[in-house]
Every structure is written in C-alpha cells, then in structure tokens.
Amino acid sequence: MKTLVIVTHPNMETSIVNKRWVEELRKYPDKYTVHELYKAYPDGKIDVKKEQELVEAHGNLVFQFPVYWWSSPPLLKQWFDEVFTHGWAYGSKAEALINKKTALALTAGGTEHDFSAEGSLGKTLDQFLVPLETSFSFCKADYRSFYAFYGAEHYLADNSDLPLLLDRSAQGYVEFLNNL
Q1: Residue 27, Cβ density class (10 Å: 0-12 exposed, 13-18 middle, ≥19 buried)
Q2: Where is the Flavodoxin-like fold domain (predicted)?
C-alpha cells in the first residue's frame, strides 16, 4: 500500500527543504500520496472523517514538517487533536493505527550539534519528539523514527552547495521512506 505523507508547512511557497522534499515525492505517485494540510485547510476547519478515511486508505503514515518552537506547526497539532479520536485512534475498540508504520520527516533550523546534550539546546531532537512518539505508541502504531534535515537556517545564506545538498537530502528521504 502507498505511504501517506502529511505535509504541514504554513509557508510552503518560501520553503526550501520541505518544498524540495515534496517535489521528490511527487516523482513517485504510485508510492506516495502527498497531502498538504495548509493547502487542504486554509481556514483551519479540518474534515475529520475525510482525514480518517485518507489515513485508513494508506499503509504507512509520515508527518513532514518544520520544527516550530521544538514542536509541530499549529495546524498539525490541531490535526492530531481532532483526527486521533477515541474509538478510532485509541481506546479498546480503536484499530485504525494498530501496527501502522508511522514516521516523521523534519526540518530543523538548528544544527545537529545544537540538538545535542552539549549543544545550545541541551537536548536531542529525539527528546523534543517524545510527545509525538508517545502519541503513536498510545495508538499502538509502529513508530519508525524520523528523518531530519538539520541547519536549514544556516544553509539559506548564499551557499553554492545548497542544490547538491538538497538533492542528496531528498534522495535520502525517499530511501528512508522506502525502508519503513
């Protein structure tokens, strides 16, 4: 079954890394369904039934987003709050997410060193993602970790290596998804 990639970037037009990743995924329409939340719901009114049906129609579930204040963008948090309902995502009769391979694809402004015990944030990206990992575990999904692009803010400056770096990152992302 195809992988559903829920992309949540409030400013995709100005994105560099997330936009490049989406371009790469769209080359494989037989493998990936790219679902951009901010395009689907510019008014923030989520169609819960439609979203649940979309998740159910796919084998794997990936959430792609830029790290915002060490969390997800607000519409993705709202999506979780509204779509992961009792009886569907969790609870004694919930089956929608049981053993569904689930992963994250993240872009972080800080460097990998920033996201370390010794770095400026004093915590790893894994540590910041514990709430999401716990949510997936609570829903009995098969969480498969994350793919990350670190240092996005640093690469936006005049960097002649950026196109090559973006291509490598996009290819690595597809490889990560293929190995879920």
Answers
A1: exposed
A2: 1-157
Count CB-CB contacts under 10 A for residue 74: 13
pLDDT at residue 130, as a whole number = 97
Structural domains present in the chain:
3-179 (3.40.50.360)
Q: What pLDDT does 161 receive?
A: 79
SS3 per-residue string spanning the chain: CCEEEEECCCCHHHCCHHHHHHHHHCCCCCCEEEEEHHHHCCCCCCCHHHHHHHHHCCCEEEEEEECECCECCHHHHHHHHHHCCECCCECCCCCCCCCCEEEEEEEECCCCCCCCCCCCCCCCHHHHCHHHHHHHHHCCCEEEEEEEEECHHHHCCCCCCHHHHHHHHHHHHHHHHHCC
Q: At what angle do helices 48-56 and 74-83 cross, to 10 degrees?
A: 80
CA dist., res. 61 & res. 42, Å (int): 22
Ramachandran angles phi, psi of 173, nearest 5°? -65, -45
pTM above 0.90, yes or no: yes
What sign results for the dihedral spanned by CA atoms 38, 41, 44, 48? negative
